[in-house]
Amino acid sequence: MQVDWNTFYQDMLEATGQTVTMVVFSLLFSVLIGIPLGIALVVTREGHLLQNKWLFRLLSIIINIFRSVPFIILMVAIIPFTRFIVGSSIGTAAAVVPLIVYAGPYIARLVETNLLDIDPGIIEAAEAMGATPWQTIFRIMLPEAFSSLVLSVTIATVGLVGASAMAGTIGGGGLGDLAISYGYQRFETDVMIVTVILLIVFVQGLQSIGNVLSKKLRRR
């Protein structure tokens, strides 16, 4: 079948906009969920600022459960929840919900790793100077790990780009849906290649921006 490139380019622009929308909104809410969860995983563990072994175990189990489910299965499994939140199980808005559920726990683990890498001596020094747990978290721990957190959010963003492409399998729109509609269902390999190249450029751009920001924010 002959590709109508004019139509394809229009569809590509629309699909790119849908992908950007999915990634931006899902990243925003995932960060709002993931960072507090990551902080909680660190400060509630044994011997830390707000030690609470039962809360730590509960959070860890819940996060592990969500991280164990492949995204393609997660999208289908939470369709009733998605319908409850946005009123539909298809479309760009519907794809954002499983993306948040997928990325939130992932970001939490990345944040946990970043905060655990902080020199314990810095935290002990803050406590010795009379800092409260909340002051230690927001004035010492987060600023100290900020550069690493930027890289972690960048990694999560790249993961969301890939996951948003998979959302096309259930009518989520975006570049993944475009690749399936043209490249798979119509057997138009050249269109598939163009879509893949666009995704690669998108990911490379995001990673480069994240690397530059992390380098500028790194404490010396």
Automatic annotation (TrEMBL):
Positions of transmembrane segments: 20-43, 55-79, 85-108, 149-171, 191-213
InterPro entries cross-referenced by the UniProt entry: AA_ABC_Transporter_Permease, MetI-like, MetI-like_sf
Pfam families: BPD_transp_1
Key words, A-Z: Cell membrane, Membrane, Transmembrane, Transmembrane helix, Transport
Biological-process GO terms, alphabetical: D-methionine transmembrane transport
Family note: Belongs to the binding-protein-dependent transport system permease family. CysTW subfamily.
Subcellular compartments: Cell membrane
Domain ABC transmembrane type-1: 16-208
Membrane-related topology note: Multi-pass membrane protein
Protein name: Methionine ABC transporter permease
GO cellular component annotations of the record: plasma membrane
